[in-house]
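pasting for ref
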Amino acid sequence: MKSNAFGKERGWIELICGPMFAGKSEELLRKLKRLDYADVDYMIFKPKVDTRTFQTIASRDGREMTSIDFEDPNEILDAILKKEKIPHVIAIDEAQFADISIVSICETLAEAGFIVYVSALDRNFKNEPFDVTAKLACLAEHVFKLSAICTECGAPGTITQKMVNEKPCNYETPTVQIGDYETYTVRCRHHHKVPGKPTLECLKKFKTAYKQQKKIEKENQISK
């Protein structure tokens, strides 16, 4: 590794997060490719539950790199220790699918002096945070939040929308389902829908009252 590849600082976590189709894996691969020019050794890991690729992380623009698939996050530590030459950087793609212990693994690696790159979905289709990503966002030194494009209006798309027969899935639909364009799309806050999602009664009352108030204001402006 070249002497100034990472400056004097050693050991931290970088989180790349956002909805589907935002380019998270693409950004992770870009970061790793840059390391090649500085002769930095790295290892790449991915949860085995993500069956879209086998022992590979791939971006939708066609780039890919070989990875090690794991079931238990502790396998990451074992794989590192088996290397003849210990890497400087550990990269983990699709971390939201991993057991929550992946958070402690990342912390341990950073404290030991590794640079840890993590790519993960920030929220599920219900617009609720993935626990792994939420905790890493609090602990990481650097967080990069990406967005896609809302397929309804073209605004920044920040929430993954799960679809069935071209309609938004009900809240009770299983949270984790491995899929791609055939199952998911991206929406902005104002076009993301989750039928059947529980809402506090006080929030329902506020929304109803606010809409009524805006309607009255509009009518008053027209009458003037």
